[in-house]
Design a protein that fits this description.
The complex is a heterotrimer of chains A (193), B (580) and C (172). Chain B has 22 helices and 21 strands. With 580 residues, chain B is an alpha/beta fold. Chain B starts with 12 loop residues before the first strand and ends with a helix. Chain C has one domain: Alpha-Beta Plaits (2-Layer Sandwich). Chain C has a two-stranded antiparallel ribbon. Chain C has a two-stranded antiparallel ribbon with strand order 2-3. The chains are: A alpha+beta (193), B alpha/beta (580), C alpha+beta (172). Chains in contact: A-B, A-C.
């Protein structure tokens, strides 16, 4: 079973607080500050898009240096082992991998950010001089996801094994009760055969 | 607002007109999400598919600038279907017949070419609002920052009155204020026509009262209304204003036609700026008074719903910074009117004693997470979450006056040279002029210079503009570089920019036209054009250069405040960290 | 467009799970997963197996990022090899009719295990499209309590209601 963050789009107000909380939380632990969830807004929906920690995760399959491992229902990127090949970012069907690195602006007296490509270039294709890019991915904050706590409308939910199982059971029970409601019609159909 | 923000959750119907709570007030947006989950009906009229439109029961994508035409037709639909509350109108309002004389000529069909809304949808919305058990009508800058601001507000109020969606629980009007603490500023009389507590300067009895309380001859107090912020620029140019004491504002960032305003302010004899961070306006000031921030002083905020809440200092001030009230007191003393207060409570109690509406709002009531919601005339009074209960309005005869007006188009319409409408809106993360939030790393990560210009896919395609590219936006007044977001949520023919960006400054383009009565600027409607930039890498570098230069200039000016090293040496601060 | 799906007459269901066993056995072949695609639910008053409704506008198909679940015109079909185990379908299905199971994968080279890992596979009713007799569960049910509901059956049922009752039926 996998654990992951799930979103209730009707509660999302597109504020981005989840991304800010994610970023700050990881910077505090010496990890990359790139937010590990995206905010997608189309005409009909606003929703955070997160890593699903897939049980048959393609990112894990494809990593050439085994920087991506699966432990305890969760898919984890070791940012130190990652070589920045970006294959995982290419293969993830959710776009949940965000290649990022630490800018050299501010290092050794270089205080100016000097862009060398248009920002509209896809993150997978970007290359900054001197920047060591690695794969950045949701790590469920070691069990206490900051984005979930930060969301002002409680639109994000941390889904764990027992919750999924419980939810499936509830739905099947609902369906069974519904079957009970239409029992007579079904009985009619059986008799007509 | 006449309702309280928590009561939004329990309204049975919420109608948002030209207001985007998710960007402007996420906490209000949360209330609306909860209201919806409790079964409320949501109606949204907005040119963009705002977040609340996605959960609305009826969403109307209105054309920019149609406000009074839309609302008159909305009112017309209510009356022609007999959904108005005749009893309430007869007992608690004045002027219905005359009001109807104007409204009767506006039908949803007759204004469809202005509003862009299918008449049946508008009628459906009118029914939904009028027949709801309790309905709240909310609006924001979509109403205020337009040419017919005050007239539109009259129309909105009339709609609530004729349907009896006011003067009862969980119903009423919810205009939301733009800033914290603009409600407080108004409550305390930082207005050119009011003393604290909305008492008119033109009222001789009020002048007498304040003159006596303050120990000054009554002739010293102005007996006529003064200038508003948007008057300062051209009045300075015309020689009517020679000095400007600018307190906690960055007009060169937030006011329309920024380049022209800069020229006008530079012509002043004296410009004083009192602020906590170096801003573009502070840069041209003659004198800068460094104030303290919300974390460094005590005070009282007013929420949009008239709720006073106390806040206390978390850290002491640094360096030369003084509390605003200390600066005012010291300046006043040096100017010949001695002023001294021990603490903010002393100031508050003096103010309370002169403002009958606020009298019951004591510091004790507001201690901790307490609050006091005015009108709160006595110490025993519990405060007033919902105003006008029972249909008792605050006019001399306690009745509401219904006022109707004809629609007029906005001042600068798009034409061949400038075919797009420019509408300025808010960022969700950064706040206003960004002097504070620009320093916050997490917020800068989510949104940075030059800011975004939202453009409809058709308009972008016609100009060869791709999502994420830097583009040049320009108008008759000036230009700015911005980053294009190709957005299917907005209406074709209009572009939207947020006003927080120094390099991507939309106010280089906006027009200095104002509502004739409130003098609020027409930020929501001016004409512009947008074009693609060929060399994107050059554009990115140029933008960074401009931004770095501005940050360095601000830091250089601010560094004059850095104290000489002493035995209590502070760690050496680099330039970047002053602004970081 | 929706095709057919399997529904239970809860009045005929005796909760014996023979349908689940038949389904499991039908899928117990190499390259498939030996897991039942329908699940028996028993409440105080109702017993019925819950199966996929092969929805016309299936949320599981919409949620699947790799096309492991897809609409083939007659039903919501499954391409198990495409599943990455993200569980979007599990979350999306309002009936709880889709599940994902893990299995241990080995890449052997003789006696050596060259690679080992966890794979995932989606478990959902495929209407036994490749089975000569049709759905295994329908055939196996001892009380003949499972019905294949399709457009013709629904139309006939509506017509019968129209004939026997005053006209109160609205369009489906």
């Amino acid at each position: 079973m996998n654990r992951f963050i799930s979103i209730h789009p009707d509660r999302c107000i597109g504020c981005g607080t989840c991304r800010a909380a994610c970023s700050e939380g990881h910077i505090a632990r010496g990890l990359q500050g790139e937010p590990r969830l995206s905010l997608v807004q189309t005409r009909g929906i606003s929703a955070a898009v997160t890593c699903h920690h897939c049980e048959g995760a393609p990112c894990l399959e494809v990593c050439p240096v085994a920087a991506i491992t699966r432990e305890d229902g969760m898919v984890h990127v070791n940012e130190q082992h990652c070589v920045g090949c970006k294959l995982c970012a290419v293969v993830c069907p959710f776009g949940a991998i965000h290649p990022a690195g630490t800018s050299i602006a501010g290092v050794a007296g270089t205080s100016v950010n000097t862009p060398t490509y248009p920002k509209r270039l896809d993150p997978i294709l970007r290359y900054d001089i001197g920047v060591y890019t690695c794969a950045v991915k949701c790590d469920l904050c070691s069990g206490d996801p900051r984005c979930v706590a930060a969301c002002p409308t409680a639109a994000l939910e941390y889904v764990k094994e027992d919750e999924i199982a419980g939810s499936i059971k509830d739905r099947r029970i609902e369906a069974a009760l519904a079957a009970g409601d239409v029992q007579e019609s079904i009985a009619e159909i059986r008799r007509s055969r | 607002m006449s309702v309280s923000i928590p009561s939004l959750e329990d309204a049975k119907c919420i109608f948002l007109f030209g207001y985007n709570p998710s960007a402007s007030h996420p906490i209000v947006s949360r209330r609306i999400v909860r209201a919806k989950e409790k079964g409320a009906k949501i109606i949204v009229a907005d040119p963009r598919v705002i977040e609340t439109a996605r959960i609305a029961d009826i969403y109307m994508q209105i054309n920019n600038g149609c406000n009074i035409a839309f609302l008159n037709a909305f009112a017309n639909a209510i009356v022609t279907e007999n959904l108005h509350d005749k009893e309430f109108i007869a007992e608690h309002t004045n002027g219905f017949d005359e009001w109807w004389e104007t409204i009767k000529d506006y039908t949803p069909e007759s204004v469809q070419h202005i509003t862009g809304i299918d008449p049946e949808t508008m009628r459906e919305a009118a029914r939904m609002y009028a027949t709801a058990e309790s309905a709240v009508l909310g609006w924001g800058m979509g109403v205020a920052q337009q040419k017919q601001n005050v007239l539109t507000v009259h129309t909105l109020a009339a709609i609530a009155c004729i349907t009896h969606q006011i003067g009862k629980p969980n119903a009423g009007l919810a205009p939301v204020r733009g800033q914290n603490n603009v409600q407080g500023s108004c409550d305390m009389g930082m207005l050119p026509n009011f003393f604290p507590g909305y008492q008119k300067v033109t009222d001789p009895a009020m002048r007498e009262k304040f003159a006596k309380a303050w120990g000054v001859p009554v002739e010293k107090l102005s007996d006529h209304e003064g200038y508003k912020l948007t008057d300062v620029g051209h009045n300075a140019e015309e020689g009517k204003v020679h000095a400007f004491y600018n307190f906690g504002e960055d007009p060169l960032q937030t006011e329309p036609d920024a380049q022209d305003l800069k020229r006008q302010l530079q012509g002043l004899d004296l410009l004083i700026c009192q602020d906590i961070f170096m801003t573009q306006t502070c840069m041209i000031a003659d004198v800068i008074f460094p104030g303290t921030s919300w974390g460094e002083h005590d005070g009282v905020f007013s929420a949009s719903d008239r709720t006073f809440q106390r806040f206390t200092a978390a850290v002491p001030p640094k360096g030369e910074c003084k509390h605003d009230w200390q600066i005012f007191s010291e300046l006043s003393t040096r100017m010949g009117y001695p002023m001294h207060y021990e603490d903010t409570q002393e100031i508050w109690d003096e103010m309370r004693s002169l403002c009958p509406t606020f009298y019951g709002a004591t510091y004790e009531k507001m201690a901790g997470v307490g609050h006091a919601q005015w009108p709160i005339p006595t110490i025993e009074h519990p405060g007033t979450p919902i105003m006008y209960l029972g249909g008792k309005f605050t006019t001399p005869d306690n009745r509401a006056n219904l006022m109707a007006h004809d629609w007029e188009p906005p001042t600068e319409l798009p034409d061949e040279e400038y075919p797009l409408i420019l509408c300025t809106v808010r960022e969700v993360g950064h706040y206003s002029c960004r002097s504070m939030t620009g320093n916050c790393r997490a917020l800068s990560l989510l949104a940075e210079e030059p800011g975004e210009i939202h453009i409809h896919p058709d308009d972008a395609k016609a100009r060869g503009i791709y999502d994420g590219e830097l583009v040049r936006a320009f108008s008759r007044r000036g230009e700015a570089m911005s980053r294009a977001v190709v957005d299917e949520r907005i209406n074709k023919g209009t572009v939207y920019m947020t006003y927080q960006w120094w390099i991507g400054k939309c106010n280089n383009l906006t027009l200095h036209a104002v509502d004739p009565r409130s003098h609020t600027p027409e930020d929501k409607f001016s004409a512009c054009q947008v074009e693609a930039i060929e060399d994107q890498v050059w554009a990115e570098q140029h933008m960074q250069e401009l931004y770095t230069q501005l940050k360095n200039d601000l830091a250089d000016l601010a560094s004059a405040q850095d104290v000489e090293p002493t035995s209590q040496r502070q760690p050496q601060e680099t330039r970047e960290s002053v602004i970081v | 467009m929706g095709g057919s799906y399997i529904m239970a007459d809860s009045g005929a269901c005796i909760g014996c799970k023979t349908c689940m066993a038949a389904c499991l056995m039908k899928h117990d072949v190499p390259g498939d997963a030996a897991v039942a695609r329908l699940n028996l639910v028993t409440t105080l008053r109702v017993s019925a197996p819950i199966a996929c409704h092969h929805c016309a506008d299936a949320p599981c198909v919409a949620a699947c990022p790799t096309g492991a679940l897809y609409d083939d015109g007659t039903r919501v079909a499954v391409r198990m090899e495409r599943c990455i185990g993200c569980r979007g379908c599990v979350m999306a299905c309002p009936y709880g009719a889709v599940n994902v199971v893990e299995y241990r994968r080995r890449s052997p080279l003789g006696d050596l295990t060259v690679n080992e890992g966890v794979g995932a596979v989606v478990i959902k009713c495929d209407l036994c499209a490749d089975r000569p007799g049709g759905p295994a569960c329908v055939e196996a049910c001892p009380t003949k309590g499972l019905v294949i509901v399709d457009k013709d059956v629904l139309e006939a049922s509506v017509k019968r209601s129209n004939d026997t009752e005053p006209k109160t039926v609205t369009a489906a």
